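Long-time lurker, first post. I've been practising inverse folding by hand and with some scripts of my own, and I keep getting stuck on stretches where the structure tokens seem ambiguous. Below is the full token string for one chain I'm working on. Before anyone asks, I'm not after the true native sequence, just a reasonable design that respects the backbone. If someone could post their per-position residues I'd love to compare against what I wrote down in my notebook.
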């Protein structure tokens, strides 16, 4: 069985994740579930990044220890991932003892081979981003990543020789077109960071102690990126003294799914660390776009933060999953508004999907009191529907290969739309009036049930709960993803999959 190892970025434990942070876990989950559906041996890892000065300051503000602070936030993050129905195989934490021990070994290995050296850092530091910048990297004198003020800092630090691996990395990126996706992110990394020349990277700090101690120099703690990025290998059994069979099986990762704002760390720092450890690079790093709320990127200071669990409470988990997966384009930022969310629920989920399932089952139960099977009374319009069912797998496969999740969902909904049109074309209610057309009526309903069954299977990566409900309602769990001539349906039970929402009333209720 072919393996597939997918990761999300590990969430920083500075506070509760909003829907923009949560988008990534849903996206990764849909990919992981799809790969399982295709028969892959999937390993899906997510978790939390828990060290650093920012955490220490936040814990001080609350008068608790950093460990108490991260324990609280990590459990909240995991709870929200579970609310979103994420099917991860392992939830890792950078405070896990095993991770800390291996990070110390990695640091020592790099130091012993001359890739890490002791120096002094003088630069402009952004505490929220935990990053040093040169004057020329600032935007209007402020942090280029978050726009906040920076402070001059100077301290003794260990440095990693990024510059040593620069040319090798440029060649690797140029030779492996699939490594950084989308394409625009690749050009940005090469032109803005690699070609101008890499500065060696600060990988330890002495001004705070909430981090993994450098075991041969106790006044230093390992600095964020060397600690955080290595989670992708420490948790699957990498060890400089001899790695496990699990590591040999799953590494290199097939996909690191991350936000576009941290693409630099994953496509420059991380590959250089791996080259230093003499390990293969991940097959692909995909920098996904952001989910914008209303008129801008979510931030607490703007007061436009929306939380996933609140949305799920209002609209249901699959409605929220559908919206974020469908509405965020492959390479551009997507927008979340209650208006659009309600329109999608009413238009796509209630009208196209829910209505089709409900109408079909209701007609079956109204017109027949025996099992539904294919009576073979075929008309020309049937073949068009059957062809759309049979071509669905290939169309989804081609979209998923490019991680165009929204487009893959569109292909499923195209078949659902076609099925609704087929009802209008065949007019089962008229066929039911003519006793001589009973076999034709059963054939029509059979074709609709096959369309629903196959679409239900393909919806499982994106809308897992809904997929299960469809399977239960049509009382058929055949796994074949093509139209079957000889299936049988009995004991069908309709129940609304999605309720239409009164938009004005709901918006008022939500205070919009």
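-- Answer (accepted) --
I ran through it position by position. Result:
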């Amino acid at each position: 069985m072919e393996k597939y190892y997918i990761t999300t970025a590990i969430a920083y434990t500075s506070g509760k994740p909003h829907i923009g942070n949560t988008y990534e876990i849903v996206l990764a989950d849909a990919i992981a579930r799809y790969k399982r559906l295709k028969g892959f041996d999937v390993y899906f890892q997510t978790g939390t990044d828990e060290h650093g000065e920012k955490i220490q300051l936040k814990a001080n503000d609350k008068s608790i220890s950093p460990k108490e602070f991260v324990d609280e936030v990590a459990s909240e993050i995991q709870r929200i991932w579970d609310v979103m129905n994420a099917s991860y195989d392992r939830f890792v934490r950078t405070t896990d003892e095993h991770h800390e021990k291996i990070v110390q070994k990695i640091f020592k290995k790099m130091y012993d081979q001359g890739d890490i050296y002791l120096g002094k850092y003088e630069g402009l530091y952004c505490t929220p981003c935990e990053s040093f910048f040169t004057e020329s990297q600032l935007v209007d004198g402020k942090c280029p990543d978050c726009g906040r003020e920076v402070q001059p800092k100077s301290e003794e630090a260990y440095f990693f020789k990024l510059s040593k691996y620069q040319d090798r990395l440029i060649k690797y990126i140029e030779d492996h077109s699939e490594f950084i996706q989308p394409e625009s992110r690749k050009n940005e990394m090469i032109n803005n960071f690699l070609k101008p020349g890499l500065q060696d990277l600060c990988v330890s700090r002495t001004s705070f102690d909430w981090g993994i101690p450098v075991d041969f120099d106790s006044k230093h703690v390992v600095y964020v990126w060397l600690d955080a990025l290595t989670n992708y290998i420490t948790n699957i059994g990498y060890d400089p003294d001899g790695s496990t069979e699990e590591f040999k099986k799953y590494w290199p990762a097939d996909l690191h799914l991350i936000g576009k704002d941290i693409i630099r760390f994953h496509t420059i720092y991380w590959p250089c660390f791996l080259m230093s450890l003499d390990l293969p690079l991940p097959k692909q790093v995909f920098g996904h776009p952001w989910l914008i709320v209303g008129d801008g990127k979510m931030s607490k200071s703007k007061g436009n933060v929306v939380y996933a669990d609140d949305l799920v409470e209002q609209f249901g988990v699959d409605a929220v999953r559908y919206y974020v997966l469908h509405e965020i384009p492959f390479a551009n930022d997507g927008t979340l508004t209650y208006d659009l969310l309600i329109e999608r629920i009413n238009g796509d989920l209630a009208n196209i999907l829910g209505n089709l399932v409900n109408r079909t089952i209701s007609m079956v139960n109204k017109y027949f009191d025996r099992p539904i099977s294919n009576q073979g009374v075929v008309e020309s319009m049937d073949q068009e529907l059957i062809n759309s069912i049979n071509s669905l797998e290939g169309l989804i496969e081609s979209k998923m290969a490019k991680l165009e999740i929204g487009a893959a969902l569109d292909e499923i909904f195209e078949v659902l739309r076609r099925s609704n049109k087929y009802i209008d074309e065949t007019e089962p209610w008229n066929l039911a009036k003519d006793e001589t057309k009973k076999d034709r009526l059963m054939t029509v309903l059979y074709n609709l049930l096959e369309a629903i069954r196959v679409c239900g299977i393909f919806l499982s990566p994106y809308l897992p709960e809904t997929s299960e409900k469809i399977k239960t309602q049509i009382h058929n769990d055949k796994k074949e993803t093509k139209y079957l001539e000889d299936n049988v349906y009995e004991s069908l039970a309709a129940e609304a999959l999605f309720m239409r929402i009164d938009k004005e009333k709901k918006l008022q209720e939500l205070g919009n």
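A couple of notes from the structure itself: Residues 231 and 265 are 14 Å apart (CA to CA). DSSP finds 19 helices and 17 strands in the chain. Happy to go over any region you disagree with.
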